[in-house]
Design brief:
Blueprint lengths: L6 H8 L5 E2 L7 E2 L4 H5 L19 E4 L4 E4 L2 E2 H7 L2 H10 L5 H13 L5 H7 L8 H16 L8 H27 L12 H10 L10 H13 L7 H11 L4 H12 L7 H12 L5 H9 L20 H16 L6 H14 L2 H5 L6 H11 L7 H23 L24
Antiparallel strand pairs: 1-2, 3-4, 4-5
Helix pairs in contact: 4-19, 5-8, 7-8, 7-12, 8-9, 8-19, 9-10, 10-15, 10-18, 10-19, 11-12, 11-19, 12-19, 13-18, 15-18
The protein binds s-citryldethia Coenzyme A.
S-citryldethia Coenzyme A binds next to helix 18.
């Protein structure tokens, strides 16, 4: 039942009745915080397509131009010149670290990358075939039980310590959720390795032999972590912020973020892309899949395609495709059938009117699964790798929300479409 807002309100909104907020980059925002108080009206925006939920200085995305920048630095430049721990420092603190700051931060992370031995016992409570994301949600949430009572989130030093603990422990937890599923003993972090290499040795190391690190794959993992570290107010980050706004324990907030990231429309898409490419199998099967993706009566979507913001190619997809090519060649897999299908699928889709009209392009998940699979990471671990990277973005946004201090609890309203008020049928 659509009726239209009275003309004077529209005029007030457009003619300065509501202040316009202007950021450093990107669209301006009409500040409608007083809309309900002044007019008894709500703004209806399911899916938040036109809503800025907060002010943030961490990540900027221009979906129309395919721009992604962490603290102003374009993702392509960070992927080429930086490393994940430096990017983590940049996201958390706002500037690239000096040499001394980088060493201090690295050592702080190394100091916290072990798990409490009682946390390790949690893994044994799961079936061996439990999905790693189910294990990670549970174990990260359980860290609240270990740190909740000695954590005052009103204290900025304690907030930072909790953030560093989460960044440090996530690879250990993710790797443990994988080794447990294979029946292998949990691997402890080894501090002679850098962050990405340590993650690789915990994933693949065996207790009965020395781990041989492949520097090309370690660099590829570092790149994957950089590209997935943050992405402004995506679904999982907004989940973390929503939980944080109530003052919830940071470990519980990040567990909520992991749960949200798991969804196939979000971080779970990388796993679905590889399943889709494997089902396609050969390029001659691509037309059938394209037809299904366009068929409105079919819930199937082309996984790894489309994005709420990017109406251009996701800049991360370009970097990952290039890295995938390099690693596949390095491993002698340049004829990887999945890569061939993916590239053919991309070419066909990008020439199809349906995808052109809707500006549907490959996103970060389209090639990441091919790269991770080539590196020996099983499909069901793909989103766990994404969660390791995105923990840096989540804790950075969590710190920003609390450091801001002006943000009360998030409490959206609704448009009620249920039954009118009615009396209980006494004596029924
Ligand atoms: C990530 O938000 C982030 O930043 C997320 C992320 C991050 O770093 O945090 O970038 C990571 O989640 C990447 C996205 C991974 N998900 C997928 O690859 C799943 C497949 N993609 C779609 O489910 C979809 O594109 C979304 C969820 C990503 C975006 O959905 P929107 O913005 O709600 O788009 P929409 O549903 O409004 O689609 C607009 C039109 C619709 O058709 P019409 O109704 O206009 O006819 O495009 C169609 C959709 O049916 N469409 C697709 C499609 N994606 C959109 N049709 C076929 N295949 C697709 N993949």
């Amino acid at each position: 039942m659509a009726s239209y807002v009275r003309a004077e309100i529209v005029e007030e909104v457009t003619e300065g009745g509501f202040p316009i907020q202007t950021g450093t980059l990107g669209p301006q925002a009409v500040d409608i915080q007083s809309l309900y108080a002044r007019y008894g009206l709500l703004a209806y925006d399911p899916g938040y397509r036109s809503t800025a939920s907060c002010k943030s200085a961490i990540t900027f995305v221009d979906g129309d131009s395919g721009v992604l920048a962490y603290r102003g630095y374009p993702i392509e430049q960070l992927a080429q010149h930086s490393n994940f721990l430096e990017v983590a420092y940049l996201l958390m603190f706002g500037e690239l670290p000096t040499g001394e700051q980088a060493v201090r931060f690295r050592d702080d992370v190394r100091q916290h990358n072990l798990l409490h031995e009682q946390v390790i016992s949690f893994f044994r409570g799961f079936r061996r075939d439990a999905h790693p994301m189910a294990v990670m949600v549970a174990v990260v949430g359980a860290l609240s039980a270990f740190y909740h009572d000695d954590l005052d989130i009103g204290d900025p030093d304690q907030r930072l310590n909790a953030a560093i603990r989460l960044v440090a422990k996530m690879p250990t937890i993710a790797a443990a959720s994988y080794t447990y599923s294979t029946g292998r003993p949990l691997r402890y972090p080894r501090n002679e390795y850098d962050y990405a290499a340590n993650f690789m040795q915990m994933l693949f190391g065996m207790p009965n032999q020395d781990f041989v690190l492949d520097p090309v794959q370690a660099r590829a993992m570092d790149m994957i972590l950089i590209l997935h570290a943050d992405h402004e107010q995506n679904a999982s980050t907004s989940t973390v912020r929503m939980a944080a706004s109530s003052g919830a324990n940071p470990f519980a907030c990040i567990a909520a973020g992991i749960a949200s990231l798991w969804g196939p429309a979000h971080g779970g898409a990388n796993e679905e892309v590889v399943k889709m490419l494997m089902e396609i199998g050969r390029p001659e099967n691509i037309p059938k899949v394209i037809a299904r993706a366009k068929d409105k009566s079919d819930p199937f979507r082309l996984m790894g395609f489309g994005h709420r913001l990017y109406k251009n190619v996701d800049p991360r997809a370009k970097v990952i495709q290039e890295t995938a090519r390099k690693v596949l060649a390095h491993l002698g897999l340049e004829n990887d059938p999945l890569m061939a299908v993916a590239m053919e699928l991309e070419q066909i889709a990008l020439k199809d009117e349906y995808f052109i009209e809707r500006k549907l392009y490959p996103n970060v998940d389209f090639y990441s699964g091919i790269l991770l699979r080539a590196m020996g990471i099983p499909t069901k671990m793909f989103t766990a790798v994404f969660a390791v990277a995105r923990t840096v973005g989540w804790v950075s946004q969590w710190l920003e929300l609390h450091n801001d201090g002006t943000h009360g609890i998030d409490r959206p309203r609704q448009l009620y479409v249920g039954k009118p008020l009615r009396n209980y049928p006494v004596g029924r």
